[in-house]
Amino acid sequence: MYSSNYCPFCIRAKQLLESKGLNFEEIIVDGQPQLRADMTRLAGGRTSVPQIWIGQTYVGGCDELLTLERSGQLDPLLGN
């Protein structure tokens, strides 16, 4: 997950993933233009944070992650 230390959406996404007992890699893009450029390229041009992948599956941002959770699709994606 690409994120920022100052982003409330990043904090919410991390809270959800942590509530699932997951260990995940967090790449902080604050003050890192090359990391943000890499994130933007990988996310198909999206520049906002967070940008989340589960395995090789691109999820999107916090809203998409929460939608997966509400629809019951997140746990199967996580292998739970």
Automatic annotation (TrEMBL):
One GO location term (cellular component): cytoplasm
Keyword Cytoplasm recorded: yes
Keywords: Cytoplasm, Electron transport, Redox-active center, Transport
Classification via Gene3D superfamilies: Glutaredoxin
Family: Belongs to the glutaredoxin family.
Protein name: Glutaredoxin
Spans through the membrane: none
Species per Swiss-Prot/TrEMBL record: Halopseudomonas salegens
The Glutaredoxin domain, residue ranges: 1-59
Gene Ontology MF term list: glutathione disulfide oxidoreductase activity
Job of this protein: Has a glutathione-disulfide oxidoreductase activity in the presence of NADPH and glutathione reductase. Reduces low molecular weight disulfides and proteins.
Highest taxon of source: Bacteria
Key word Electron transport present: yes
GO biological process annotation, one example: cell redox homeostasis
